[in-house]
């Protein structure tokens, strides 16, 4: 089968296109024929070894994919069915940028045939990140308040959509050009991200900065008692002893999360949330740049150089 793979860690130039053996499935695996896979920053981190994880070389790159079932050892999946996965290509598992992928049954999920595979695969990484962050890491409760900073981006809009589905009161910071989109998603208060967050008078039960540009010391001041900050990027500053004291005296918490450490249970719970949203036409509005899979090196280079114009990069078979 044709695949995009690496024989060693390194820059995008290490990515090769060539023949690899078609996988032979184990009892707990399903063989799928890949339709499309997405390229995310974490894929570049695995390829370059800046994210440390167990791999076997040659390593097929990529973690997310939509495809069709070819062979199955599980009665829940039938040949020809449309499916998706979002946790391959790390922790000892082969990736998805190949014609065929052997996916563990517990990491494979059904997809309604009426949905566009390209739109779905573009959404998977950011949607699953948002779902697990809200549902499992922050353990959000209905009717409480959430501030999403940088809400106009891929993860930000997914957080807003799922937070409203979980009955949260949502406020955002973003470019003013995104206000109408966010208000249509149900945001109650939209703040221009050029405004200093210290000028915001609201206080929140949960706060997530998707941009990594807001000082943590400023965000701590926006929390209610028992408030939580979800960290998915590195903030530009460190907490002072005074702010650390403020955290524990107000029973507040910083909760870090990266989806590569998500458990199977978390991934399955997230799959339920996002497939329900997909069926309602939600989470499927990313702008995409589609390339043939044999341009995987170019896709990684575009992403690392920030030359993708804010679009999700999709590799199509």
Proportion in β-strands: 25-35%
What multimeric state do the chains show? single chain
Radius of gyration: 20 Å
The unreliable regions are none
CATH topology of the largest domain: Quinone Oxidoreductase, Chain A, domain 1
Proportion of residues in helical segments: 25-40%
Total number of strands: 16
Q: What is the N-to-C succession of helices and strands?
A: EEEHEEEEEHEHEHEEHEHEHEHE
- In round numbers, the mean pLDDT is 97
Counting structural domains, the number is 2
Class by SSE composition: alpha/beta
Domain Enoyl reductase (ER): 10-314
Protein name: Oxidoreductase
InterPro entries: ADH-like_N, ER, GroES-like_sf, NAD(P)-bd_dom_sf, Zinc-ADH_QOR/CCCR
GO molecular function, one term: oxidoreductase activity
Please provide a written account of the structure:
The chain is α/β, with parallel strands linked by helices and 317 residues long. It folds into 2 domains: 2-115 and 284-316, Medium-chain alcohol dehydrogenases, catalytic domain (Quinone Oxidoreductase, Chain A, domain 1), CATH 3.90.180.10; 125-259, NAD(P)-binding Rossmann-like Domain (Rossmann fold), CATH 3.40.50.720. Helix content is 27%, strand content 27%. The chain contains 8 helices and 16 strands. The strands form 3 sheets. Strands 3, 5, 6, 7, 8, 15 and 16 form a 7-stranded mixed β-sheet that branches. Strand 10, helix 4 and strand 11 (189-192) form a beta-alpha-beta unit. Helix 2 (117-137) crosses helix 3 (154-165) and helix 2 (117-137) packs across helix 7. The mean pLDDT is 97. GO terms for molecular function: oxidoreductase activity. It holds the Pfam family ADH_zinc_N_2.
